[in-house]
Specification:
It is a multi-pass membrane protein. Its main location: membrane. Keywords: Cell membrane, Membrane, Transmembrane, Transmembrane helix, Transport. InterPro entries: Cation_efflux, Cation_efflux_CTD, Cation_efflux_CTD_sf, Cation_efflux_TM, Cation_efflux_TMD_sf, CDF_Transporter. By secondary structure, the chain is of the alpha+beta class. It folds into two domains: 215 residues, Alpha-lytic protease prodomain-like (Up-down Bundle), CATH 1.20.1510; 86 residues, Alpha-Beta Plaits (2-Layer Sandwich), CATH 3.30.70. The chain has eight helices and four strands; from the N terminus they run αααααααββαββ. Strands 3-2-1-4 form a four-stranded mixed β-sheet, with helices on one face. β2, α8 and β3 form a beta-alpha-beta unit.
């Protein structure tokens, strides 16, 4: 049985959220172009292999920002005959692509680092290069915080993945700067490509983590434990008139949380009364879990299970 939980609730608010998400993705594209320009200029001035590796890593920002924009627009499309559950998972594909691009950037950096280790050379005008790279790093750090915080609020996997990637970029730039400073101070120019290699290893780890998390979501991973607990508490509290609920299942798909379970009612319960109970539970779940889509299967009392949870009482009792 499906009710208010499957209906589009507050469409204006959802449209605003989608518009905001797309604007943030466009902002990432502009920020990525600005940061890339600063880092390329820093490398061009200094000739530093580490700064070149940092610039190469930043090219991923632009590619993934474009992928995120496309994915967010697809994910915002309403359900249709071919996609009755919507297009919400499109953002996870963008996140997987971002992880793959991060890994590719790390491999490119390792190649440049290897060439630098084989033939280390001095760095020209390092101070100006470090200043330019520092400005780019500060911009990335501020924008990463915006993307992660807003992405979590808007439940956008693409924005959160983009923000986490930028955090990695910030640490990368910090490591690059440290290596370049040490090379200038000590005169050991091999430290420049060596730091680039260390940065590449860190980026490989970050990229693999992004891919792993995104693939888990594509595999219909359940919602976090605290969200599941909230769902169960709402069912227990609001399903007065029913006997129990069992087989509670959840999955997250972008901004939407799918919830389905079986609700056992007494044999004498009318269809009207069962529907009223379901409507009440669905409305409460939709208020407690943003973007909830609920499906309830009503069953007679002989369908109770030992694993079921008693409903219609105070969950704190």
């Amino acid at each position: 049985m499906q009710g208010t939980g499957d209906k589009v609730r507050e469409p204006c608010r959802r449209d605003i959220a989608v518009t905001t998400t797309i604007k943030l993705a466009l902002g990432s594209l502009l920020i990525g172009a600005l940061v890339l320009g600063l880092k390329v200029l820093a490398w061009w001035i200094t000739g530093s292999v580490a700064l070149l590796s940092d610039a190469l890593e930043s090219t991923v920002n632009i590619a993934t920002a474009i992928a995120a924009i496309i994915a967010i627009r697809i994910a915002s499309r309403p359900a249709d005959a071919n996609h009755p559950y919507g297009h919400h998972k499109a953002e996870y594909f963008s996140a997987v692509l971002e992880g793959v691009m991060i890994i590719l950037a790390a491999l490119l950096i390792l190649r440049e680092a290897y060439a630098g280790l084989a033939n280390p050379i001095g760095v020209e005008t390092p101070v100006l290069g470090l200043v330019l790279n520092g400005v780019a790093t500060a911009i990335n750090g501020a924008w990463a915080w915006v993307l992660i915080s807003r992405g979590k609020t808007l439940k956008s996997p693409a924005l959160v993945a983009d923000g986490r990637h930028l955090i990695t970029d910030v640490f990368t730039s910090g490591g690059v700067a440290l290596g370049l400073v040490l090379a200038v101070v000590t005169g050991w120019w091999i430290l420049d490509p060596a730091m680039a290699a260390l940065v590449a290893v860190n980026i490989l780890w970050s990229g693999s983590k992004v891919v792993k998390e995104s693939l888990s979501s594509l595999m219909d991973e359940a919602v976090p434990e605290d969200t599941l607990k909230t769902v169960q508490q709402v069912i227990i509290r609001e399903a007065g008139g029913a006997l129990e609920a069992h087989d509670v299942r959840t999955r997250q798909a972008g901004t939407v949380t799918f919830i389905d379970f079986h609700l056992v009612v007494p044999g004498e319960t009318t269809v009207f009364d069962a529907h009223e109970i379901c409507d009440r539970v669905e409305a409460a779940l939709a208020d407690a879990v943003a973007g909830a889509r609920i499906t309830i299967h009503v069953e007679p009392e002989h369908k109770t299970k030992p694993t079921g949870i008693a409903v219609g009482c105070d969950p704190a009792m």
